[in-house]
Amino acid sequence: MLVADTIRKKLGILPHKPGIYLMRDRFSTVIYVGKARDLRKRVSQYFQPSRRMGWDLKFKALTEAIHDFDYHVVRSEPEALLLEGKLIKEFHPRYNVSFRDDKRFLMLKVNLNDPIPRFTLTRLKQDDGARYFGPFPNSSALRSTLAMVRRQFHLRGCRPLTPNERDYKHCLYAHLKYCTAPCIANVAPEQYLDQVKAACDFLDGHCQEMQTQLTDEMKKAAAAQEYERAAELRDLLADLRRTTEKVNRFDRLPYSLPLAIDPDRDLAELAQVLGLPAPPTRIEGIDISNISGTFKVASLVSFRNGRPDRANYRKFKIKTVEGQDDFASMAEVVRRRYSRLLRESTVHSPQSTVARPPSPAPPPPPPQVALCPQTSAIRPSDLCPPSSVLRPPSLPLPLPDLILVDGGKGQLGAACVELEKLGLCHIPIIGLAKEFEEIYRPGETEPLRLSRENGALKLLQRVRDESHRLANTYNAELRLRKISESILDEFPNIGQRRKAALLKKFGSVQRLRLATVEQIAEVPGLGGKAAADLKAFLEARQ
């Protein structure tokens, strides 16, 4: 397979810097995540004819599946390793082998509120008031640095949370003078806490003095031809530099990944394609999810400046629709979402308490749109005016600049009817059908098809895929919650504690059915009358 022009152009602009790259197939699915010290050299190797004709069948299959790639520049190779591991756990690419498990990079933990604080290694960060350092990409360097820190600042390395004199008798750290032995009050608690805080500052990067000292000792050992000692100091100095190097820890994934290299450019292309007066600052995407008409839910995701705005994500349970009707479900979500935005903006508006003169009578409503799932076309006279109409200044700011619904003419038509009822026809709205990635617009009978490489289409795909992911996740949560429900939930006046106590004693509802009233009454929180009522309840539902 020849290298596509788009890939060749991207290879030409790749920087000679460290970073990560994501290979994608023709469906825009991430199939491989890798890191590189030099992005241009590393990524270019995938498209060299000699490599593509090699004996490695897995590599050949990967290169044949690559349709596009994205990259993200970082400051150093350790930072690239951290980001690579996080992305692999996030996307589970099928051609990656390493980092696919749930094992995380090591971190250092110390709780300054403990009676005698100690440094421990952990892989999970919790909200427990402790202070965490890391994660660290090199575990061996971290362990070596931790041993040096304990020796330098005379910190304890024993395991007990609060050691005592008995632990001191068997503690080699104290007898070797590595530890100041706070367990036998050898130092005041305030003094030991100062030692721990000094070690924390050291791990934060205030270690230039230590690096200088190790460098001088290494040079002296080499001058004295003590090469083994010099090699040990050299390795210790390298481990110290790896551990204390400033890197981005990537608590959250960069917003420009996995598919956006330049969100601003994608927004500009989207505005040009849709004929918008300006790039949409805020985009909201809506998707419906159900299984044969059950567990009907919807999701609404918000993108600001081309990046996910997770604080404004919303989830909906469909309340008024019977059976499987995606069009009616879409109409309900649009009605609930934007009528609420209008109400909230009215409540918080400073002019809402000022008396206003009566407004003139509204014009007669336009004719109602009759939509058919299969054959109805969307006509300009039936729906909203073109999206180029500017937003009136009196409308509230929370309204989006663009609405994207997952689906074709039917979903788009249902959403437009509801916006028209709310007087929000000026908001640009489109539908994106997944099969051929077609863009449906109000007033246009034919869909708009863009190139798969178009930045505007990629942006819309990101919004659509994120709304689809959120809707499916919420649907799965409801199904799991329903499966975990018990027949005991139907019994009146029984809470979670008493239900848990019953299941703990009898193990299952079936065994509870076989129990006597006296045995049920032995459960804490259940008296004789409640036990008798529960027994009668279970017998009536056999």
Summarize the structure.
This protein has 542 residues and is α+β, with helices and mostly antiparallel strands. The chain has helices spanning 5-13, 39-44, 49-52, 57-65, 77-91, 139-153, 165-169, 172-175, 189-203, 208-223, 227-244, 263-274, 326-348, 409-421, 455-484, 496-506, 509-514, 517-521, 528-540, and strands spanning 19-24, 30-36, 68-73, 106-110, 120-122, 131-136, 282-291, 294-304, 307-308, 314-317, 402-406, 429-433, 438-440, 448-449.
Structure description:
- It is flat and about 85 Å long.
- By secondary structure, it is α+β, with helices and mostly antiparallel strands.
- It has four domains: 87 residues, GIY-YIG endonuclease (3-Layer(aba) Sandwich); 139 residues, no CATH class; 198 residues, Nucleotidyltransferase, domain 5; 54 residues, DNA polymerase, domain 1.
- The protein is 42% helix and 14% strand.
- It is built from 19 helices and 14 strands.
